[in-house]
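INFO batch 0412 | record 1 of 1 | parsing
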Amino acid sequence: MIELFTAATPNGHKVSIALEELGLPYQVRVLSFDKREQKAPEFLRINPNGRIPAIVDHDNDDFPVFESGAILIYLAEKTGRLMPSDPKGRSRVIQWLMFQMGGIGPMQGQANVFYRYFPEKLQPAIDRYQHETRRLYEVLDGRLAETEYLAGDYSIADIATFPWVRVHDWAGVSVDGLEHLQRWLAAIESRPAVQRGLQVPPRHEPDERSISSAQAMLMR
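INFO prediction complete | emitting tokens
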């Protein structure tokens, strides 16, 4: 069984969605950011960086894996699903996975910080990160004009990207005019496994969150 250490964040939802899509049995360990459980010594032995998500594969000598992208690759390779085995197909998936990890996640995360939580309203910072996030969305839209999913077939690249783009409003970034991206969002959101993964753990909608809970959303 997989033991999943997580919280209700886009990065956490990547892994719960993947586990649901793959049909792997897993046990959920929800970490409280308010209690700083992600910094507890026992968790730091699993992820020295003190961030969620992380997993422990108890079917593989209690092997720990941290960083959401690394977890997705591990699960795909463990099951032989959600990533092609041929070199070109595998590379396409990893390229778009890295696009999310190195671009959309960091830029949209900073847009969240400066738009929602920073004590001072620094408009140049807000503009920079919102505009860059929108630009990255436009790259996605251009790709999705050519293919149904980011790497051709549905893959861990889509699973990594979807939980971030679906909360674009929380960062103050519009998807207006991005018809292909909107089509892709709707297609993925309609998948039963995605719906189940988004409920791990259950969460309130953004306008119902406390400030402390919303700030915790920014932490991986």
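INFO post-check: The two ends are 23 Å apart (CA to CA).
INFO record closed
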